């Protein structure tokens, strides 16, 4: 572990976060929110006090191996969450620091789970900060660092790999900094386009920026307790639905399209798997709602069903209806969509469609081998034979995903016994949504519920789950691997 280089990276990130927090600070001044500018200044001061000494001199040895990269990324996400949580706590909006930390981790990891019980009463700058953390965390803090640095050391490759979600790591172009800049350029262009579309629909600019940041990061924070449902506006729902589909798609598809490689983009199995899952789930849930007479017309069933499918599948968590009151079959499908999630190299969370496809292919191969033991059948993905290392990696990830999921459910159930109105379904879906970075679950943690009733210990466990889900398990687990800390 190269401690000096890790400290240098953390220093740069601290300075970036200090600059980023100037935006809500100026908003608090503009809205004349008494006291809040001081608390933003406290967080900014801490970031600068730690960051500046660490970056004064860049270490001569800038080598950062895979383990060092994993640890650096994990520490960076924990560090920025701990300090950014302070304005929520110090302002008295969330006086319990564990609540403030939960809200901030939920923001950066684009989960969208909240402990706020009265969202409309929260000062505007803090409402902005919630969605702002979504947007910052959506593409990744280290990806931002790589994108803005004039010169990128090769040591940052390991940190970058640890943060970018997906089955395997790949650079879009030969140089890492250009890959990061392309990803951020696509991210920014789509963000601006969504904001313009919402403003054209006469959403006021403040609401538009809140929901744009949340949608771009597939996070789900809104400045209304009823989320998108507060507007009851078909135009907003259609626009957000389309953009959620776009943000939940593998960004490599956009790059291939931009450079004219349309056929290569259309050959992506994950793209068709992603769109296919959306289409099938929409049809099934629409018919469940219509035949179950949840809504009077087929059109209404399609409207509410399709929006909730894309919102849950992309792990955004926006809501236009209280789906906890839908038939059990529809709720079960939504929970399955939470687990699968969106595409690799997108802002969506979950297991990822690419891994889901590989798991299906492995299962089908094993079934065929049972029928014809002497048949040798390779697994192909995007037209290429994938290695045993890749399939083993997917299977290992799925095993860890399942193990952590069940362990967390037990721990949360032990630390917060439910006395009223909730069953095991509350705990199970709370853990699933936090781990999949989805946000709303069922029963007490439904789209119009919150996580405020959980104990401090449960909130720490759920926050840890959010980080595990966003960083895809391995980087955070390396914090508990003693050999990874060994100096080299």
Mind explaining what this structure looks like?
By secondary structure, this protein is an all-alpha fold. Helix content is 63%, strand content 1%. β1 and β2 (384-385) form a beta hairpin.
Q: Averaging pLDDT over every residue, what do you get? A: 89
Q: Biggest sheet, strands in spatial order?
A: 1-2
Count of individual helical segments: 22
Number of strands: 2
Helix content: 55-70%
Low-confidence parts lasting 5 or more residues at pLDDT below 50?
none
Query: In percent terms, what proportion of residues is strand?
Result: under 5%
- Helix-strand topology string: HHHHHHHHHHHHHHHHHHEEHHHH
Keywords:
488 residues, mainly alpha, two-stranded antiparallel sheet, 22 helices, 63% helix, globular
Quick overview:
With 488 residues, the chain is mostly helical. It has helices spanning 3-20, 22-30, 36-55, 66-84, 86-90, 97-108, 124-139, 141-148, 156-163, 176-200, 205-216, 234-247, 251-258, 262-266, 269-291, 298-313, 328-340, 353-371, 388-415, 424-435, 456-470, 474-477; strands at 380-381, 384-385.
